[in-house]
Amino acid sequence: MDRYVRDWIKKEVSFGSYRIQGAEILFLAMVSVLAVLVRVQVRSFVADDWSIYWSSWLLELRTRGFSALAEDFYDYAPPVMYLLYGITLLPVNAMTAFKSICCLLEFAGAAVIAGIVTECTKSRKRAQFAYGLFLFLPTVILNAAVWSQCDIIYTFLILCSVLFLLKGKNWTGMWFYGAAFAVKLQTLFIFPFLVILWVRRKVELKHFLTIPVMYLLGILPAWLAGRPFSELIGIYAFQGSKDRWSLSIKFPNIYQVIGNQYFLDEYVGAGMYLILGILMMVLFWMAYQEVRITKEYVILMVVFFGLLTTYFIPHMHERYLYLTDAFLLIYVLIRPERFGLFIATGFLTVVGYAEYLTKKPPCVSYGVLAFVQLVILIVIGLDLYRYPRYEGDRQRLDREEEGRITDACG
To answer: DSSP state, 51?
Structure first.
């Protein structure tokens, strides 16, 4: 029996073109079971968002059925409301069902992250580590299993989008991006990386048609239910107008330094023009850089733009680094020397989560955290700036290594 087990642990199994050892299957199974158990333990926590918003939306949908979508009682994109409507048809506790769906997507997202890491590094061990690490990130556990939030939905779609773009399947990748935009406006935080891919002819202008098409498909059922088309088109604008009471909502960005409760109207307008100006300059510079668009460079762009936009756009919430954290995990597994950034960013976001969920003051001032966030942004920005030289040095070292191997064989 012992010999059979040892042989199975060392044996490789094929799933299509993917090969995995028995020991790796055991590791992934154990990690998955433990991740499930953690989520089961915290599933009963009821956050204010659930009590105030989600439960009232579910009651409306349960009482009036699908026709309730004709009203403006919700401010999320309609696809999320379709999910809630589906939950009302199930003979289970609504909060448990909602959390379970989001948690299942976390496992799917972890698998896609592992696929991206494999695509970028060709390392099975790093990919499996990425799978497990994502499932045990404090913010990932807190987001859905505790807080009843659904940021994993659009994050999963973006992860799929990037994976297919890395594989050269542009239409599939852009359909996934369009689907993510139909779910959450925050997908625009990383949109500039697609602009660079278009400038470098990695994607074509026609591929961007997927974004409005998927958005229109997303609002179509709500329109058929009776909600005015003009309201559905402008639902994201309505979302942006809700948080005008604070420039930063438990998020460590520039407004925590200058004062997030002062000059709201003035700073909102100035902040939007500021980030647009910064993005224009950055995109102009990147468009003329002599750099090879590698898979690592694509991931680096996503991380950089995710950090840059959230640092300067007003009204950011504590949850708005969720997507960036997922791609930062991928990046630090490509470049392990940057792993400290991942730990620091995770701490920054947990502070905001903890204040909301516990209703206690943060353990560290948001002004201090904002400076830490700025340092992280600068380091990633310098990685982007130095990437052409970094990639050139790595290619030279690879050629030298190949030459030494050739000489040794000769």
So the answer is: I
pTM: 0.92
CB 303 within 8 Å of CB 133: no
Distance separating alpha carbons of residues 353 and 122, to the nearest angstrom? 34
Q: Are strands 12-15 and 316-317 parallel, antiparallel or unpaired?
A: unpaired
Q: Token pair of 392, please?
A: 């050139």
Burial class for 193, CB neighbours closer than 10 Å (0-12, 13-18, 19+): buried
Position of tokens 């061990």?
A: 125
CA distance 407 to 217: 60
Q: Two tokens at 156?
A: 């999963």
Asked if 163 contacts 142 with a C-beta cutoff of 8 angstroms, the reply is: no
Q: Which two tokens stand for residue 178?
A: 């369009």
Q: Which residue carries 């950089």 as its tokens?
A: 304
Query: For residue 93, is it left (φ>0), alpha (ψ between -120 and 50) or beta?
Result: beta
Amino acid at 142: L
Other CB atoms closer than 10 Å to residue 312's CB: what's the count?
Answer: 20
14-56 confidence digits (pLDDT tens)? 666 667 777 788 899 999 999 999 999 999 999 999 999 999 9
| 255, 373 Cβ separation under 8 angstroms | no
How many Cβ atoms sit within 10 Å of the Cβ of residue 376? Answer: 22
The two three-digit tokens of residue 118, written as one number? 């494999």
The sign of the dihedral angle between the CA atoms of 338, 340, 346, 348 is: negative
